[in-house]
Write a structure and sequence with these properties.
Elements lengths: L1 H14 L8 E13 L1 H6 L3 E12 L2 E13 L11 E14 L7 E17 L2 E17 L4 E9 L4 E12 L1
Antiparallel strand pairs: 1-2, 1-8, 2-3, 3-4, 4-5, 5-6, 6-7, 7-8
């Protein structure tokens, strides 16, 4: 049931933001570090995360969908197993607003809502929890499609900052 709910929400997030065909379509992929905060930061180390998504926009506004995946090993002093880790992943619908001209360094802000799955695994045992997720962030896009950004992502139980760099290309 959880898998079906996640797939339904991902499809809804992607399709709910359909806009006219003359809009610009941008695909992107990025990776970087994730820094756990709140209770998650009490037991998880700095980890990594990756994102991939599509934005559909006209002018400075874009809407789209994003998949994200990451991993944070647990701190030795609080972990019962040597291989304890948390894998946050999920899907979000996103809204993006870019300032300035596309052919120059361009700041942007974004936010998103969707599903965040918090998967804990240690000693061959794993357990997942699916929750409502959110994100907000800002970044800079450079000519040739390179971007850098910071984001805050969270759910009821998992909260973290991400610092990412990536590549975006227009179709």
């Amino acid at each position: 049931m959880k898998k079906r709910s996640v797939l339904f929400l991902a499809a809804f997030a992607f399709l709910a933001f359909a806009i006219p065909a003359q809009a610009q379509t941008t695909l992107y992929i990025g990776a970087g570090a994730s820094f756990p905060t709140s209770d998650f930061g009490d037991y998880a180390n700095t980890g990594w995360m990756g994102t991939a998504g599509a934005l559909f926009g006209a002018g400075p506004v874009g809407v789209g969908a994003e998949f994200f995946y990451g991993q944070n090993n647990h701190k030795d002093e609080v972990s019962l197993a040597d291989d304890a880790k948390t894998t946050p992943w999920g899907f979000m619908g996103i809204v993006d607003y870019a300032f300035g001209q596309p052919d120059k360094i361009r700041p942007y802000v974004f936010g998103g809502l969707g599903v965040l799955i918090h998967k804990y695994s240690a000693g061959g045992i794993s357990e997942s929890e699916t929750q409502f997720g959110y994100q907000a962030g800002a970044g800079l896009s450079f000519p040739l499609g390179i971007y850098v950004e910071g984001r805050y992502m969270g759910s009821e139980d998992t909260k973290y900052f991400g610092a990412l760099a990536g590549f975006a290309f227009d179709l």
